[in-house]
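Design request, tokens follow.
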């Protein structure tokens, strides 16, 4: 089974490049902050290092769970046809699940050595920066221990196997012949996700109230964690929220399409996105993650600078929030690129059918450009809405006012970055997906 899993990895390296990148980041980050915690336990850098390492480690664990689960689910679904063919050859569902677990094992073991090196290097650099800001003693050094490395690999592998197990259910469910002809669109369990999303929102309301009554420094940390909870709710309610946002944001594109006699691709793109709510939500949620976290960071840093513009403690706190944002943005960017690229590539047959019915490649790219713009706008809107409750709670805790202070010259790049990333990823992937002859693309699918 291990040999077969390795053979499948070699056969489709591009399909598993995204999961490998996410697993590499996960092992690196967990190793990095695990090394800092080990250093704090050894007593070489003061007690505050342990608090910082623990806080960063918690967020790293959450992001690992989110990005690894999201990325591996797409990778497993991309192999659905291969797994269905194996089942027609006599493989049992249990063997297919074991094969997928073996793939995750190979990938995790493959990325672990370079991830350990990156994590150890990152821990040293981070500790140097902390010492330069007098957060830890100037002579603090990272204490080497094998445990952070092993824990980083073990935790990542555990999350990966769990995510693969969930994703494998859809691959082995039903008859192989059904899997061979069905699309990659995921349906069902909408009401369960909706209830779960509403429960997350209901559970986050007390956290908003609690955050608004805490000191500024503690409230800042709670604001970022609370925003993650609201973004989880956005992910669970994704299909519904995505459909509503596209209906509203698509109005101008439909009006432009009618004015041009239906020749413009806006109406087609808006209707197409609205009709595939689940696919759209898979693309929108990573964008909302980036924008939501960026919005919370901009609110926290801008408000802290207003409250204590010359405070060394405030400057250090803002720097720490910036490091958190960079880490989260790295995870979010990889998840966004992988999700958008996978979704766009999976639609090759759709593009080919449109080409066979008379659509030119220029028209297809114009449609994709409109879809990319609508998807990015939907992610921006949902990200800002998800960040609003905790940002307002922090502003109330720090200043007694509901509206936070935001430096728009800093905030604008944080929002425009995910938009540019979305459009460039969809268009570049779409160009590759439409480059082969339409007849060939239809036959391959």
């Amino acid at each position: 089974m291990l040999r077969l899993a390795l053979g499948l990895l070699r056969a489709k390296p591009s399909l598993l490049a995204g999961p490998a990148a996410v697993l590499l980041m996960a092992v690196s980050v967990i190793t990095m902050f695990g090394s800092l915690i080990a250093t704090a336990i050894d007593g070489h850098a003061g007690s505050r290092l342990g608090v910082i390492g623990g806080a960063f480690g918690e967020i790293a664990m959450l992001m690992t769970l989110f990005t690894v689960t999201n990325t591996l689910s797409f990778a497993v679904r991309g192999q659905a046809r291969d797994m269905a063919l194996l089942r027609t050859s006599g493989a049992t569902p249990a063997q297919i699940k074991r094969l997928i677990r073996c793939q995750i094992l190979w990938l995790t073991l493959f990325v672990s050595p370079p991830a350990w090196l990156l994590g150890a290097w990152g821990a040293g650099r981070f500790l140097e920066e902390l010492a330069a800001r007098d957060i830890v003693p100037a002579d603090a050094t990272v204490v080497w221990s094998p445990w952070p490395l092993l824990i980083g690999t073990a935790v990542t592998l555990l999350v990966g196997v769990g995510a693969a197990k969930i994703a494998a259910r859809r691959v082995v469910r039903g008859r192989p012949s059904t899997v061979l002809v069905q699309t990659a669109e995921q349906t069902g369990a909408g009401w369960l996700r909706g209830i779960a999303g509403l429960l997350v929102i209901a559970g986050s309301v007390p956290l908003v109230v609690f955050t608004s009554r805490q000191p500024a420094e503690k409230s800042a940390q709670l604001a970022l964690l609370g925003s993650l909870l609201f973004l989880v709710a956005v992910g669970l309610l994704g299909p519904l929220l995505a459909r509503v946002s596209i209906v509203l944001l698509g109005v101008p594109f439909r009006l432009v399409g009618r004015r041009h006699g239906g020749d413009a691709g806006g109406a087609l793109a808006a209707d197409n996105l609205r009709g595939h709510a689940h696919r759209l939500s898979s693309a929108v949620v990573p964008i909302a993650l980036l924008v939501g976290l960026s919005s919370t960071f901009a609110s926290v840093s801008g408000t802290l600078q207003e409250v204590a513009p010359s405070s060394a403690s405030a400057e250090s706190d803002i720097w720490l929030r910036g490091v958190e944002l960079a880490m989260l943005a790295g995870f979010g960017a990889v998840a966004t690129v992988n999700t958008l690229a996978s979704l766009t590539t999976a639609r090759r047959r759709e593009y080919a059918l449109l080409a066979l019915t008379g659509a030119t490649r220029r028209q297809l790219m114009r449609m994709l450009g409109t879809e990319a713009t609508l998807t990015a706008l939907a992610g921006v809107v949902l990200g800002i809405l998800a960040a609003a409750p905790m940002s307002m709670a922090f502003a109330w805790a720090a200043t007694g006012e509901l509206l936070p202070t935001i430096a728009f010259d800093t905030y604008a790049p944080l929002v425009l970055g995910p938009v540019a990333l979305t459009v460039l990823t969809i268009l570049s992937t779409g160009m590759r997906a439409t480059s082969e002859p339409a007849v060939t693309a239809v036959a391959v699918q």
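Comment from the thread starter after seeing the answer: thanks! The longest helix spans residues 93-132.
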